[in-house]
Each structure stands twice: as structure tokens, then as C-alpha cells.
Amino acid sequence: MQNAEQRRLELQRKKQKLAELKSIRQKDEESRVQNLLRTNENGAAQNGASHRQTLSSEQMEEILREVGISAEPTIREESPAPPRGAHAENHLNPMSASASNPRISSLLSVDLEFSTVQTASTDNKDSAIYSKGTQTDDERISVGEFSLGSQEFDYDDDMIMPVDHGQFRGRAHSHDQDSPLPYNEEIAKLLGQAKHVDKALQRQDTEEKKSTHVQTVQPLSEEERNRLTLDPEFLDSFNRSCKVIGRALNEDIDIFINYTKDPYEKAVASDDLLHLAQVYYDETWTAKRLVTGMAFSEHHPDLLAVSYGPCDVPNEPPGVIVVWNTKSKRITAEFIVYCQSEIQSVAFARFHAHLLLAGCESGQICVWDNRLTSRKLPINRSPLTTQAHTQPVSCLAVVGTKNAHNFVSLSRDGRICSWNVDNLTQPVDGKELMTKEGKPASATRMSFPIGEMQTFVVGTDTGEILAASRNGADPAVIKTDVCYKGHSGTLTGIEFHRASGVVDFSHLFISSSHDWTIKLWSTKDANLKFSFESHPDLVLDVAWSPVHPAVFASIDADGNIFVWNLNEDVEGPVARLRAGAEGDTVYMNKLIWSADGKHVFVGDDEGRVHMYDVRESLYVLKSEEWNRFARVLSDMKESNEEAEKYNM
């Protein structure tokens, strides 16, 4: 292989010189042929066409030399090789060697005859190195050249002529003779050398192909596939990869946005402010189940946890929680967990990003870790003791700061417990909520002001709203400080004002009831601020917008979704939409806003969660919205004072 590489480099260096020599030889050859033709024509004209000219030995030798045929005869005896250091004139030219040898000169008069020229040809292969392809033809043999692949080969100083049957041995140079004679034995030898080189190159190519060959993936057997599909780590990695690809393929880009429209323009039609964007539903896990609770994650605002009640299908878990990805166009359930008790409420642990909390019908508190995707049952649950809850847990809340926070739960019997999420063996404290009259309060809903962890309000079955504080002197009882009376039916929803801005409205809260009304209250006094009475049926839930100070939404048992903007109208909603097909009644049970205020989520009794897009004017605020709402509240207060004077 090393010799072949050296030869290739040497041939490249001589290529230009050989091209020039070939051009000169071709011109000389053409000149000799023309001179020979002119000589023959002149001789024929002198002696006549029927007479043949007799040539001397010297002329015959000259003619044969010009056409590339050697005049030397076949010599049976081998002559000794000339010394290696002899001059080129004594051994390069066969004619000069024969002239100095009397035996050879005496044999020049032998008869000549035509013989068959042996040729060999192989496929030509264009490459920069020697290859299998070796091609020879009469024309190139006549000028002393051979074709090995795409490289031109010629005699050089290292090529020794073989000696066979009395032929002279010596080193031939194409530029030292006019028409060198290629021997068939030499061609055979060169072809053999090319074959050896080609075999070595073939082995090298085979080794390179083996080194670069890509291993084909062998299909798994049935046993291997079954074992892999049961591996929790594989399933976790596979599900996570599917979610990443799904998010990449479902980027939400609004290509129909109209920049010429006024985003603050008031809608002409009342239902133009709401648009159904998505329905989250799973035939296996949520079908025919009542939505009992909804909560967004503060760490991952795209995740919505929804708790579902029992279904009529036998052997199905009575309580299910599905965590939906609300940013994906494709309906995607990020996590699905369940327990063996009906779930009444759900919440994310604010300061534990991976924990999911639930309050059960049995009175237990259950905890799941979404990092353990293969585990569907709770990783921890509270015991059934009298120190904790013995009635259904209707509300959950995580209040406080990262360094000082509590997980608070409320049950229907009015018992409030504080928990350490890392230890549910027993509550940190448990107290009974009492009315001013000293009676146990049957609580249904609870709400804490933003940034507050001690004071709270609770709605009851009787329609009363109780304001209390967890910091009481009695370690077993919480006595209410203020009682808000105005509703005549069970409280179904209660929530403090959530939007923060230039004016503080955190003292406001709203409530909904089975008495078909929504009422506005303030912790500064127990008087009713305003009553909204536009719903045609039981009002089942109400929630403030997290960004707009004057906007809230409500739902009723007739399937109506109302969106209110008190800066625009206090007598009726600015948007009204009926869920479901025309003529159908959908029982709406739970309501929640997205953290950015762009979407409203409503859960029904069929296991569906409806996501509605709201108009930009409801979450893109003008600077005067806060002051306008303050004036609206002032007008409400004046109207109430005038009504009281009139009633007196």
C-alpha cells in the first residue's frame, strides 16, 4: 500500500511533463507519416503502379521503426543484462544494441509476419487512486502509455523490463525514444500489480464501511415489550416526551387578530364578550361525574386541577382529580389521580410545587405528588379521628408566606383545622366555628383576603356570612365577630376581591346563594352594599376577576354564565351566555378565572369543563378603571343611604 501511494504521488508530479512530451511525439509522428506517404507517392510515379520498389535493410528498419514495429528477430539465447550503471544509449534503444552485436545483425534478414496483438481491458473507474479498472488499447500502446483507472501510467526509472525469450532487459523512458514497444508480458505484469493494489484498496474500503456502518435496531421481543411498558421510569420518560412534543406542535398563535379594532370598544351583543374556546373532557375518567372543585397552580399557571364526584359505573373510584393543561390546543391531561372516597374540594400547595391536596367526603385530607406519575393513589392522608374532620371537607386554602404558612381546611360541621403538609397524622390545631348565639355553624364556603392568614369569612346553610379570626383566646372554639345577613338561602359561593391596583378594594367580597341573588359586602361594615338579581335560577358560584377591579362572573342552575362589569352597568351583566345546545339545560356547578383574567372556566354535572375566552376590554385596563369603580361604590353607598331614609 505504501509503494502504491508513492507511485501515485510520483505519477501526479510527472503528469504535466508527460502531457507535453505526448504532444511533441504526436506532432513528430504525424510529420513522419506525411513524409513516408510523399516518398511512396514519388517512388510509385517513377517505377509505375505495377512495379514494387525493392527496399534495403536500412530502409525497411526505418519504416518498421516509424510504425512502431521492432526489426529485431526472436532470439532464443538470453544475452547477459547490461551493467546497471551503463549509459542509456547502450541499453535503451534496441536498434542501437543490435547494431553493436554481430549475431543480432546477421539475424535481421529473417522473414517478418503479422501477429495478433493481445489487449486487455477492464471497467474504467474514476478515482484519485489505483483501482480495478485497467484499460489498454492499440493507440495508447503505440505511444507507450497505459490507463490505470483515471491515472496515466508510463515507464520510469524504477520499472525494469522483464526478460523473456531472448528479449533485451533494460529501463525504458518514454521521453528517451520515439516509439517505445510495450511487451505483452509487461502488460500482464502491470495488470497483476494493479490487481494486488486493488485488492488492498478493497480491503481498506471494507474496513472503513464496517467502521462507519450504523447498527440497525433489532425489534424487541414480546416479553421485552411487556416488561418495558410496565416500567414506571420508562412510562414517566415517555409521557414527558409526548407532552413536550405536543406543546411544540400546538403553539397558540392568533392569526385573525384585527389591529384596527378598538380593544376598549363596548360589545354590541351581550354574548360577544364570551367565546367558547375549549371543552375539557375524558370519556374514561370524567364522563357522568359532577365537577366538585377547581384550582390553578401558582407555580405553573397553565395547570388546572379539577376534582370530580362519583359516577354510576361499577368498580370505578368514587373520587378523581384530573390536572389539565389549559395552554395546549389538544386536550391534554397532565396527571390523573384518584382515591377511594368522594372528593369535595381540591387545591395546589402554594409553597410545594409538586403537591396536590384534596378534601374528601369522609373528612380525610389526601396528598399526591405529581412527580410520582405512576402512582395514582395518595402518598399521604389524614386519619379518621375526632381531632380532625368527621364531616365532608368543603373548602381548602393555603395561606401565609413561604416561611410562615398554613394549610387550612373547613368541613360542613363548621370545624376548621390547620395542617402541616409534611405531617398529616394530626392537625396543628382544630377549632369549632360558632355563631354569635353560640350555636355550631354549618359551613359551606370559606374565603381569606389577599395576603391575610388569620381573618376570614364563612358562608353557611342558613344564608348567613360569618366573619371570624383564627387567633382566638379559646383553643377549641372560634367565635364570630360579625354576622352578615341578607341571603335567604344556602351560600354557594363567596370570594374576596382579588385585583390589586392604585385603589385598595381588598375589603370587598361577594357571595352567591340559592335565593337567586348575588350580594356585595365589605369588611368595613356589615351593611349590604348592593344586590344583583338578574339570574333566573339558583346561583351556584361567583368569582372576581383577578385583574379588573369591577368585573366578576357568576353561573346558575339554568346553565347561564353572566359576566358583570360594574363600571359599565350595575343593574345587569354586560355578557350573558347559555351553555350547551339550544333547548338543553346544563347544570353549572363551579366557576374559576385564569390568573391572567383572559379565560373563564366552568364545570358542569357531565364531567365537562368549559373554557371561555373573554373580550380584551375585560382584562386590558384603562388607567381610570380603578377610580371609576371607586365612584361606583360611592354611588352605591349614597343610594343605600337614601333608601334607608325613605324606608324610615
From TrEMBL:
Sequence ranges of Polar residues compositional bias: 33-56
Keyword Cytoplasm: yes
Residue spans of the WD repeats: 484-531, 532-567
Compositionally biased tracts (Basic and acidic residues): 22-32
UniProt KW keywords: Cytoplasm, Repeat, WD repeat
Record-linked PANTHER family: CYTOPLASMIC DYNEIN 1 INTERMEDIATE CHAIN-RELATED (PTHR12442:SF22), DYNEIN INTERMEDIATE CHAIN (PTHR12442)
Entry protein name: Protein CBR-DYCI-1
Organism whose genome encodes this protein: Caenorhabditis briggsae
Source lineage: Eukaryota, Metazoa, Ecdysozoa, Nematoda, Chromadorea
